[in-house]
UniProtKB/TrEMBL annotation:
This is Sulfatase-like hydrolase/transferase. Pfam families: Sulfatase. The lineage of its organism: Bacteria, Pseudomonadati, Bacteroidota, Cytophagia, Cytophagales. Keywords: Cell membrane, Membrane, Transmembrane, Transmembrane helix. It comes from Flectobacillus longus. Gene3D superfamilies: 3.30.1120.80, Alkaline Phosphatase, subunit A. SUPFAM superfamilies: Alkaline phosphatase-like. The chain crosses the membrane at residues 7-24, 44-63, 75-93, 130-149, 161-181. It is found in: Cell membrane.
């Protein structure tokens, strides 16, 4: 029993480290909520402590044999040391992962193990030395504590009665593992107790969460989001994504039969750094000029919180998933429609540009399935151009893009995915916004990309192909920086259309829309359609139903003109609301989640 309590105390101390690492969020909670984090969280702590105790308990039951007592004790000791080191590593990674992604560690990071360089680049902004220090110190203290508690354990005169007793205790561990004697086993929602999401997250045992994600893979099971009868869900979703209006406003010059299309996907472009979408002043002056000359979609929202989800939304109009990423599953992405295929069928030359490693998160397999004629990636640049931890900085790729488009056969369809505004936010530009914290680096990185974009657009306007081209600038996802606001603010992104083929100038669209709507809107402007993009709606149609759906880790948000909300699937509760949020609005969002996830499973 001392062994079992050892692990529970270990997890309580780990939780204390977590709340200290995120002290600003913890300090914002009232004292009762702070206390409940530890009390309520004990259920998952006790559960995982039981998992770790099963093998030692079982072995100790057999230690009645004097000949194997010493080997068993040695095995238990070194087994525990190994568990301490591994568990502390996961606990430590979770500290920084939560800061970056806003959810407790699960198997998501394992998607990127095949690309260690990109993982290191992504972690470049993390306080690596501090994290290693925490890992080493907690591991050493835990090992020394174990040695102190168990160094005097002896089994010289164990009665045979100990065998059934200890074996019974090993079997009894099933009770804390399941969280009690109730019918359903324990899950994360058992420690959800507050309307403050951080409090619920802090109560979760990260090792339990990681193991649960590993052994209970959502994609191998049925749809966990069965909120409504299927017919009712279909009716709700049909209202929000209908594309049956015969009347569409055309903002592109209709005399151009096959305009060129260039989509610039801007890494982490959040509305919070763009003054025209309510963000900071002076960060993106070039994007502001471009918006003044074209069309600004002021209330656009990202589908997901990572690049692999954003690219799928932009090019395939497929909603993001709250517990998985379709991009990482080539068997599924092979069944998705993708804009490059559509344009290729209509005689367009197609290309995809990215200055980094395309294997990251299986992006390359998706782009190859899209049948792009060219993939211009990290390997297509000289080593001297590899001037960032991710690859070639944005100005380098913009220069290559401009050169290639000047000799590209028209019509063309091109997607360029930037990278310089990704962590660690190190850019080849003199610092404009002074400061060394992550917020200032984030803002400077966006200012650099904005500057690079401005130069590219200025030069592009001088080229012959410009007059036949529509350029769409859109984020892959939003970002918690420069200030971690409400969920809705973290998913709010700008979308800007420009180009010589655009006849509408200085137009602002205030209707709520999504990344997913880009596909149907663009195809409608070109008088093309593809029913395979069933989750995309034409923003310029007469009966457009403004709404947007976004997902975070096992949760989703729904944005509509009359109100918006964020819903946590684990806690089964609303965690954010604004405007008039009633049961009908919540039902709409749940229906969208249910059917879109089912569509993901069906791929």
């Amino acid at each position: 029993m001392r062994y079992y309590l050892y692990w529970i105390i270990y997890f309580i101390i780990s939780k204390e480290v977590f709340v200290l690492y995120h002290f600003n969020k913890f300090h914002a909670l009232d004292s009762l909520t702070q206390m409940k984090i530890f009390v309520v969280g004990l259920r998952l702590d006790a559960s995982f402590a039981a998992y770790l105790s099963i093998l030692p308990f079982t072995l100790l039951a057999f230690s009645i044999n004097p000949k194997i007592q010493k080997p068993i004790l040695s095995f238990v000791k070194y087994f525990t040391y190994l568990c301490v080191i591994i568990c502390t590593l996961i606990v430590t990674i979770d500290l920084e992962l939560y800061r970056a992604w806003g959810f407790r560690i699960d198997t998501t990071p394992l998607m990127y193990l095949s690309n260690p360089e990109e993982m290191m680049a992504s972690a470049g902004a993390s306080p690596t030395s501090l994290l290693i220090f925490i890992w080493v110190v907690i591991s050493i203290i835990s090992i020394l504590a174990f040695h102190f508690l168990f160094q005097k354990i002896r089994f010289e005169k164990l009665p045979w009665l100990n065998f059934p007793v200890v074996l019974f205790l090993a079997a009894a561990l099933i009770i804390p593992i399941r969280g009690g004697l109730q019918l359903a086993p324990i899950n994360q929602s058992a420690v959800y107790f507050s309307n403050k999401l951080f409090a619920n997250h802090a109560a979760i045992n990260p090792l339990w969460n990681f193991a649960d994600s590993w052994f209970n893979k959502t994609t191998e099971k049925g749809n966990p989001y069965q909120y409504l009868p299927i017919k009712e869900a279909e009716k709700e979703v049909l209202i929000t994504i209908q594309n049956n209006s015969p009347t569409t406003e055309y903002v592109i010059d209709t005399t151009i039969t096959k305009p060129n299309v260039l989509i610039i996907t801007w890494e982490s472009l959040t509305a919070k750094v763009f003054d025209k979408t309510g963000g900071l002043q002076g960060v993106l002056p070039e994007l502001g000029k471009i918006a003044d000359e074209g069309i600004l979609f002021r209330n656009c929202f990202a589908s997901g919180d990572r690049s692999d989800k954003g690219l799928i939304a932009i090019l395939s109009a497929f909603p993001a998933q709250p517990t998985a990423s379709v991009m990482t599953m080539p068997k599924k992405t092979a069944h998705l429609p993708i804009l490059s295929q559509d344009f290729k069928k209509h005689g367009y030359r197609t290309a995809w540009y990215y200055g980094g490693e395309p294997e990251f998160a299986n992006i390359k397999s998706y782009m190859l399935a899209g049948e792009f004629d060219q993939l211009i990636t990290k390997e297509n640049f000289d080593s001297k151009d590899m001037n960032s931890k991710w690859g070639a900085h944005d100005h380098v790729v913009f220069n290559r893009l401009l050169h290639d488009l000047n000799v590209q056969k028209e019509p063309f369809f091109v997607n360029y995915f930037t990278l310089s505004s990704h962590e660690p936010f190190e850019v080849p530009m003199e610092t404009v916004f002074k400061g060394d914290d992550m917020k200032d680096k984030f803002i400077n990185a966006h200012h650099y990309t904005d500057k690079s974009l401005g130069k590219f657009i200025a030069e592009a306007k001088k080229q012959d192909w410009w007059k036949n081209t529509i350029v769409i600038i859109v984020a892959d996802h939003g970002h918690p920086l420069p200030k971690d606001d409400k969920k809705i603010d973290n998913f709010h992104i700008p979308m800007v259309w420009t180009g010589g083929a655009l006849k509408a100038k200085g137009k602002v669209i205030d209707a709520i829309c999504s990344q997913n709507d880009l596909v149907a809107t663009l195809l409608a402007q070109l008088r093309k359609s593809n029913p395979a993009y069933q989750w995309s709606k034409n923003i310029f149609q007469q009966n457009y139903q403004p709404s947007a759906y976004y997902v975070f880790n096992d949760g989703f948000g729904w944005v509509a003109p009359r109100g918006n909300f964020a819903f946590d699937n684990q806690g089964k509760n609303l965690i954010e609301t604004s405007g008039k949020v009633d049961s009908n609005l919540v039902k709409q969002g749940k229906a969208y989640l249910q059917l879109s996830f089912q569509a993901f499973l069906n791929l």
